[in-house]
TrEMBL record:
It comes from Corynebacterium lujinxingii. Coiled coil: none annotated. Residues 1-11 have a biased composition (Polar residues). GO terms for biological process: base-excision repair. GO terms for molecular function: DNA-3-methyladenine glycosylase activity. Residues 1-30 are annotated as: Disordered. PANTHER family: DNA-3-METHYLADENINE GLYCOSYLASE 1 (PTHR30037), DNA-3-METHYLADENINE GLYCOSYLASE I (PTHR30037:SF4). This is DNA-3-methyladenine glycosylase I. Pfam families: Adenine_glyco. It comes from the Bacteria.
């Protein structure tokens, strides 16, 4: 991933100038997922696969918010701890939480603003239901007409007109830590856009884009 707010492109990446890297299993992957076992497994099993349900999308919004300024690898390492702390990312449960006790939890990222954002975003997620939609449907409504077809990491966008509008509209509804770069990373990770490099084994595998 090219975004500074998505899987880190500086950790565990071979000198490949951003081109796909073929692993010992014969599968080509982007450099960020080529060697580190944790990132490789995440890429192979989850990244870019469609996420459409409310709880699944809420978790991704929260995790992307926690990742701002940090590496995605760190977020993956702490993911189960986040799930335990935030009731499996059930929006109704999180919306009623007090985060004070989490500030002393060394298994989490102890950033008050980020922890509180999960609660704020849960409340905003519930409020979306009053509009006759849910978070998954709402975010998918910003799917563009076309998706990029990058050959190298340098060609992968970090934001788009859709991610900018999504960020703006989510902020109007009370969401935080949802900037346009973060929202583009969310769109990539949940299959709304396909930024798999041309030639990698997952390119087009989501079923969303031919």
């Amino acid at each position: 991933m090219p975004n500074t707010e998505t899987p880190s492109t500086t950790d565990h990446i071979p000198d490949t100038a951003g081109w796909p890297v073929t692993g010992d299993d014969g599968r080509a992957r982007p450099p960020w997922a080529a060697t580190d076992p944790l990132l490789r497994d995440y890429y192979d099993t989850e990244w870019g696969n469609p996420v459409r349900d409310e709880r699944g999308m809420f978790e991704r919004v929260c995790l992307e918010g926690f990742q701002v300024g940090l590496s995605w690898r760190l977020i993956l390492q702490k993911r189960e701890a986040f799930r335990d702390a935030f009731a499996g990312f059930d929006p109704e449960a999180v919306a009623e939480m007090n985060i004070e006790h989490l500030l002393d939890d060394e298994t989490l990222i102890r950033n008050r603003r980020k922890l509180q954002a999960a609660v704020t975003n849960a409340q905003a997620t519930l409020a979306l239901r009053d509009e006759g939609t849910h978070l998954g449907e709402f975010i998918w409504s910003y799917q563009p007409d076309t998706t990029p077809a990058p050959h190298t990491m340098a060609e992968v966008p970090t934001r788009s007109a859709e991610s900018e509008q999504l960020a703006k509209d989510l902020k109007k509804r009370g969401f935080t830590f949802v900037g346009p770069v973060t929202m583009y990373a969310l769109m990539e990770s949940t299959g709304i856009v396909d930024t798999n490099l041309v030639g990698t084994w997952k390119r087009g595998s989501s079923g969303v884009w031919a």
